[in-house]
Design goal:
Distance between the termini: 36 Å
CATH topology of the largest domain: Rossmann fold
Number of helices: 10
Oligomer: single chain
Helix content: 40-55%
Number of strands: 6
CATH class of the largest domain: Alpha Beta
Strand content: 5-15%
Order of helices and strands: EHEHEHEHEHEHHHHH
Largest sheet: 6 strands, parallel
């Protein structure tokens, strides 16, 4: 499901997702408050939300959704990708951040990635996001070498399949390990975990 106040963007979302046989668009709310009601009513796997909406904006919607007992994965789909908005969305729980000028196939890919527990940020924004993360360089306490290596790979933007190839593990095993890291670091999403890995300086560039 989606929350989007722009009629043209709502039409675009429908046209982008309609050809995907494995994705069902349940409905599109016209604002953040409607989006929250729709999440409660439909219990979707993935929420797509604009950030800039009247009344309850996308950040407040994400915060409200992630306060629910069983929240969906969430993607931001917006026209303006400024660094503060990206950081706030990721901190609020977003698993991905896309621009409305990105190719339609990228939105489909992002939904599939979010459903599998992966994160996807628009290629136009990745460098900007990582540049804006202050690197403390301090090794996080309570992590063994294997966990730090996995943190670094998540922080570099690799999905479970690519990490599995690097570590000679099945993607399902990687997903389990990443889930444990999410709990251990109290990260709201994989994107949030990736941001923290960069902040801690465990990503090898």
């Amino acid at each position: 499901m989606a929350a989007e106040d722009d009629p043209l963007a709502r039409r675009a979302i429908r046209s982008y997702l309609e050809p995907a046989p494995d994705i069902e668009l349940l409905d599109i709310a016209h604002d953040g408050a409607g989006g929250l009601e729709l999440v409660r009513a439909t219990n979707p796997d993935v929420l797509i939300t604009d950030l800039h909406m009247p009344g309850m904006d996308g950040i407040r919607l994400l915060e409200a959704v992630f306060a629910l007992p069983d929240p969906p994965q969430a993607l931001c789909f917006t026209a303006i990708g400024d660094e503060p908005s990206m950081r706030a969305a990721i901190a609020a729980g977003a698993s991905g951040f896309l621009l409305k000028v990105d190719p339609p196939a990228l939105l489909v890919q992002a939904i599939r990635s979010a459903h599998q527990g992966d994160a996807l940020v628009s290629p136009k924004l990745t460098a900007q996001l990582l540049r804006g993360i202050p690197v403390t360089g301090s090794r996080p306490k309570g992590f063994n070498d294997a966990e730090l290596e996995l943190l670094g790979l998540v922080g570099s933007g690799l999905d479970n399949g690519a990490i599995g190839t690097r570590l000679h593990l099945a993607p399902s095993t990687v997903k389990t390990y990443v889930s444990r890291l999410l709990q251990k670091t109290e990260s709201r999403s994989r994107a949030h975990l990736a941001a923290r890995a960069n902040e801690w300086g465990v990503v090898r560039h």
